[in-house]
Design a protein that fits this description.
Radius of gyration of chain A: 22 Å
Strand order of the largest sheet of chain A: 6-5-7-8
Largest interface: A-B, 64 and 64 residues
CATH architecture of the largest domain in chain A: Orthogonal Bundle
Oligomer: homodimer
CATH superfamily of the largest domain in chain A: 2-methylcitrate dehydratase PrpD
Order of helices and strands of chain A: HHHEEHEHHHHHHHHEHEHHHHHEEEHH
Mean pLDDT of chain A: 95
Shape of chain A: globular
Low-confidence stretches of chain A: none
Structural class of chain A: alpha+beta
Chain lengths: 447, 447
């Protein structure tokens, strides 16, 4: 090889060459945390309307009962399972987030790998390695065009997720370098997804499609279904079509030395991230003063907090996810900030409505986006001063392993009170010791 | 409705409101011609390697035997049939072409409609109307961003074809206006395809995907799977994400008054269009002088002819499609310019190679891109002067109905010598009198 390898070729070489032994232990541990979070959000989303409708439609065309649907008793073919499990995981805004790209990295990748694990033997280490590599590929492809790509309206979780699903699936089916380039090319020409669809079921089509089409890209490449030699940077390739000046060194520099999965955040609350430090304060207050009557709440935070979430009058659960007034009121009224606090019903709750009008927002440049201060006045005239320097779940104050397990348990309980999440949690924790993960997804199914 | 309707809404309204009675007879006739050409190219492509590989893979996941694969005895689910029939039709560069956008309009639309016609009752008039409307929607969406969109590397047949498949399928399943907007939104967020993949099997993924995903978009919309209200022109919608200054009036002006299907060209030869007037001359010469030994060929044509096709040394069938030297030599050697003249074998044929070196090209601005002059010198020293002012198949010299029937018969004979194409040709001709077209595709299957 005389020429410097192309960008796609370098990525392919990296994915093919990397072994379990090359993965630092903290990276492997983070992959387990991403899976724990994934199962939590997949259980939370598995019975939502977009999943129900897409399943009803796909079942008419599907053949095999090859693969498990998380949280459901139906089985379906592997491609459709990848679609539906990815769509379900991303219905709520509760996924993990790679903050520099705003990619939700695990939703498009893990479902493809779990479906494959029901078609062929996959060990726990294989699964974690493929998840780490898929995550790395999609994050780096996205980093080269961030933030402009997302800013224009491309749903980056979908447009880049398809590469992650292809790379991870390609690792599991043991593609060689040339085949891996083909798989990434097949992913490139199927890459799609518009932010215009956020807030509607149509979002699920591109997220689910990323998982399905990425998986299929790898399966086709294994068969010899070839494609262009440089799909990312070719003269009519991915970056050129997007009309982006891609920062190409970002895609390949330091591959195998740094790991983008380490930059993943997990959300404690299913709402806009800028609201999170405020909720930390309000929930702490309510824990210590469960019955205090609140007469006024003054929130101070980064200007982004008010720019994005100063919405005193919202009418739907979805809108409420970006209303700091609603979030504060719901947390005060219920002592919680989970999925139940961001529903249409909660938005209409008179107790929440009454509190919503008591919330005021102040902009203060002294706060970072992960910090906030909240002054809560109670009926006795006392002003309770709370503050949070770094929101729970942010990069400098990550959720603990126990927090993530709790997130999974709470999501599971909201979906089926009789379900015991312990075997699933244990299995994720012991993944690196499992010789066969074909039953992992079925641990997330009610009996 | 106080506000002016949005672009997507206007398209949706047009598709829903238009009836068979609104279609001028020449437009309906052109739709039959497009179907005739479609079956010809689908029969030519149905056993190519991309179709074989994709079928082998999809069959593992597919359920029903709902829909016919053109030219094949296998049946498969409707979504996969739409994918495979579209992919097969577009494998060769032999499709119909909407010249102003370079969209190959029928490949992504007709397979979706034919698959639907095996799921529900569809009359011949329904089929033709849906084909005309799907064609109209995709052409207009593409016209607004032509030629820049294709120029950047987007495979416009795929990126816009998905809208055509969604609109046509939506017409057949009788979507209302709101549902039609949802279907077009579902199409928008699944729109993909890169020209970088041309010349490789990966091209088939986006063309097939356009048909499959467009069909699925309509089926989901019928179920109530909703999406954004203005997916084309929303602030994070299709045109904005593409970073295109779309000429929006082109999308909606004169809807129902002019018909883009009338601007469709059908190719007599499976090679670059600029070579066609040259082949007209060479084939006429060979018809009149079947045994003359040729010593020299001087071709004069528009500068685009030499810019795109002056390739004296090609080594593969695919490259030969854009080599005027090869095309002339193969036509002289065989008296034909069909699929067999653009194969790897023909490129290596010593008789063709010997003639290839005798071809010279001259640029002449006096020629339009559909005109050429060819001086052929024979061993007796005579110079035969031939010229073509408007290539056969161009907009001003369209293929006749008989030419298109012959194209279908030749394609069918190249695929199965025992197959009788007459019932299929008759059925296409009588489509407007057919109450049920569920058997149409099966007339293109060997017995």
């Amino acid at each position: 090889m005389l020429d410097k390898p192309g960008v796609t070729e370098s990525l392919a070489r990296f994915v093919v060459a990397t072994r379990w032994e090359d993965i630092p232990s903290e990276v492997a541990h983070q992959a387990k945390r991403s899976l724990m979070n994934f199962f939590a959000v997949a259980l939370a989303g598995c019975r939502t309307s977009p999943v129900e409708m897409a399943l009803r439609s796909l079942a008419e065309f599907s053949g095999g009962k090859q693969a498990t649907l998380i949280g459901r008793r139906e089985c379906i073919d592997a491609l459709s399972a990848a679609f539906l499990n990815a769509a379900g995981a991303n219905v709520h805004d509760f996924c993990d987030t790679h903050l520099r790209t705003v990619i939700h990295p695990t939703a498009p990748v893990a479902p493809a790998l779990l479906a494959l694990a029901e078609l062929q033997r996959v060990s726990g280490r294989d699964l974690l390695l493929a998840l780490i590599l898929g995550n790395e590929v999609q994050a780096r492809i996205g980093l080269a065009i961030s933030p402009s790509h997302y800013g224009r309206g491309w749903h980056i979780t979908s447009t880049c997720g398809v590469f992650g699903a292809a790379a991870g699936s390609g690792k599991l089916v043991a593609l060689d370098e040339g085949q891996m380039v083909w798989a990434l090319g097949a992913a490139a020409t199927q890459s799609s997804g518009l932010c215009e669809c956020l807030g509607t079921p149509a979002k699920s089509l591109s997220v689910g499609g990323a998982a399905r089409n990425g998986l299929w890209s790898a399966l086709l490449a294994k068969q010899g279904f070839d494609g262009p030699g440089e799909p990312l940077t070719g003269v009519q390739g991915f970056y050129h079509a997007l009309n982006e000046t891609a920062d190409l060194p970002v895609v390949t520099n330091g591959l195998g030395e740094s790991w983008e999965i380490m930059a993943t955040s997990y959300k404690p609350y299913p709402c806009g991230f800028v609201i999170h430090p405020v909720l930390d304060c309000v929930l702490d207050f309510r824990r210590d003063h469960p019955n205090a009557e609140v007469t006024r709440v003054l929130v101070r935070g980064n200007p982004l907090l008010s720019m994005r979430t100063d919405r005193p009058d919202v009418s739907t659960g979805r809108e409420s996810q970006v209303s700091v007034q609603h979030a504060v009121a719901a947390a005060l009224a219920t002592g919680k900030a989970g999925l139940d606090q961001f529903t249409d019903a909660c938005v209409r709750d008179p107790a929440v409505l009454a509190l919503r009008g008591k919330v005021q927002i102040l902009r203060d440049n002294a706060f970072s986006t992960i910090a906030a201060a909240v002054d809560i006045t109670t009926a006795d005239g006392v002003v309770h001063k709370l503050s949070q320097a770094a929101a729970r779940g942010s990069d400098v104050n990550p959720l603990s392993d126990v927090n993530l397990e709790t997130k999974l348990k709470v999501a599971a309980a909201g979906w089926d009170r009789g379900y015991d999440a312990a075997p699933l949690i244990d299995a994720i924790g012991a993944l690196d010791k499992s010789a066969d993960v074909s039953r992992l997804a079925s641990l997330a199914v009610p009996h």
